[in-house]
Design goal:
single chain; three-stranded antiparallel β-sheet; 2 helices
Length: about 70
């Protein structure tokens, strides 16, 4: 299993840059204003519960969404 890391950086009011790394290499980044996605990323990164996700059912779906936006 690959080690995937997701980093979020606030760039303005409601604007975020999301960077995705896999096994220490940057896969890419994207800008978003989708707060549901940001909330789901934060829930996943903070060892939260899948039942607390806003727009996804599992953490794997969060990863798929993030990778698809690269």
């Amino acid at each position: 299993m690959k080690n995937v890391s997701i980093y979020t950086k606030k760039t303005g009011a409601g604007h975020y840059n999301v960077e995705v790394m896999e096994d220490g290499e940057i896969l890419g980044n994207f800008d978003t204003t989708d707060m549901q996605l940001i909330d789901d990323i934060h829930e996943m990164k903070n060892d939260g519960f899948e039942s607390e996700l806003c727009m996804h059912d599992t953490f794997e779906e969060v990863l798929e969404t993030v990778k698809s936006r690269l």
